[in-house]
Specification:
The chain has 123 residues and is mostly helical. The protein is 47% helix and 7% strand. The structure holds a DNA duplex (13 and 13 nucleotides).
DNA sequence: ATCCTGACCCAAG
DNA sequence: GCTTGGGCCAGGA
C-alpha cells in the first residue's frame, strides 16, 4: 500500500505536474459544479475554470474523462446547442430532459437553465 | 519542428 | 435559419 502524501509532498507534486494537468483538473472541477437542471457552455466552463481561451480543451476533457466521472450532458455549445452527433446527441438531450431542462427547438432555453458560476459576471 | 484533427466560437454574408 | 472563413489551443503522429 502506498503511504499517504504529506501536505508538503502533495504541494511539490502539484508544482511538478504539467500545466495541462492543472488546467484539466480545474475544468473537471468546474463541470462538476453544474447542478441538476442547469447547463453551461464550453466557453463558459473554460472561463469559469480560469482559462478563457480554452473552450476546445473543455471538449477534450469531456472526451477523455472516464464515463460517469462528470455530468457531461450539462455542457453545451454556444447558444445552448448540442454538439454531439447521432445517438450521443440524442442521449444528451434525453438526459437533460430527464433533469427538467427544456428545449426550444434544437436549443436549450439558456435564459432559464444557464448556470451562474461564482464570480461569473455578465448576464 | 510540422501537420492534422477536434463534443469549439463568432462574425459575416 | 444556414454556411464559411478565420481564430483559438493542445495532443498525437
Amino acid at each position: 500500500m502506498r503511504r499517504k502524501l504529506t501536505a508538503r509532498e502533495a504541494a511539490r507534486k502539484i508544482a511538478r505536474a504539467p500545466k495541462s494537468a492543472q488546467r484539466d483538473a480545474a475544468i473537471r472541477k468546474t463541470i462538476r459544479q453544474i447542478p441538476r437542471g442547469k447547463v453551461a457552455t464550453y466557453a463558459q466552463v473554460a472561463a469559469a475554470a480560469g482559462y478563457p481561451l480554452h473552450h476546445r480543451q473543455v471538449a477534450q476533457v469531456l472526451r477523455t474523462s472516464p464515463a460517469g466521472s462528470l455530468p457531461w450532458q450539462r455542457v453545451l455549445g454556444a447558444g445552448g446547442q448540442i454538439k454531439l452527433q447521432y445517438e450521443a446527441g440524442l442521449e444528451q438531450r434525453t438526459r437533460l430532459e430527464m433533469e427538467g431542462v427544456r428545449f426550444r427547438g434544437k436549443r436549450v432555453d439558456m435564459a432559464e437553465h444557464q448556470f451562474r458560476f461564482r464570480g461569473w459576471e455578465e448576464g
